[in-house]
Each structure stands twice: as structure tokens, then as C-alpha cells.
Amino acid sequence: MQNVHQQISIIKAYAERVGETPENVCRKATGNGRFFARLERKAEQILEDWNRLQDYMDQHPAPFELVGNNSCPTDDTSADANQENEVSNV
């Protein structure tokens, strides 16, 4: 599946090949003359939101026991330790 940035590139490339503007192609296809501009704004907002999420996750890393498995720690495989972690994660 393509992301929104790839979709925008595909629309632009198609529009260029057929000698239309991306806005006109989208208007003809969807009946909405503002579709392409709205798609570009959404793409920018998604990128900004993703960057904020990445920054947050970088500043607040997951505890080691949550990385990759979500239910048991990577350094202690005993049943007691696993049960303790499951209770504390609830």
C-alpha cells in the first residue's frame, strides 16, 4: 500500500503525462476541485504528527520488557517474573 506522499507523486506524474494539473485530474476523478490541495495539507499534517510522535517516543523510551514482546521481560524468563510484570502492566 502506498503512503499519501507516494500517492501525491503518482497523481503529479499522471497529471504531467496527460498535460493536466493535479488539481484538474482530481476534480475530474472525484468531482472535488479542492481534493488535491486538501490531500497535500493532510500529507503535511501527517508528517508533522509523525515527527511529534517520534520525538515523544525518543524522549520516553519503552521499558526494556515491553520492547518486542509486550508480556515478558527479555532478561528474566521465570514464571514469577512474568506474572509480576503482567500484573504491574495492567
List keywords for this structure.
disordered C terminus, 4 helices, 90 residues, 2 domains, mainly alpha
Walk me through this protein's architecture.
With 90 residues, the protein is mostly helical. The protein has two domains: 1-59, no CATH class; 62-90, no CATH class. It has four helices and no strands.
Summarize the model shown.
The chain is mainly α and 90 residues long. It is 66% helix and 0% strand.
Round the mean pLDDT to the nearest integer and report it.
Answer: 81
Integer-rounded radius of gyration = 23 Å
Strand segment count: 0
N- to C-terminal distance: 34 Å
Strand content: under 5%
Along the chain, the helix and strand elements come as: HHHH
How many separate structural domains? 2
Which structural class do you get from the secondary structure elements? Answer: mainly alpha
Query: Number of helix segments?
Result: 4
Shape: elongated
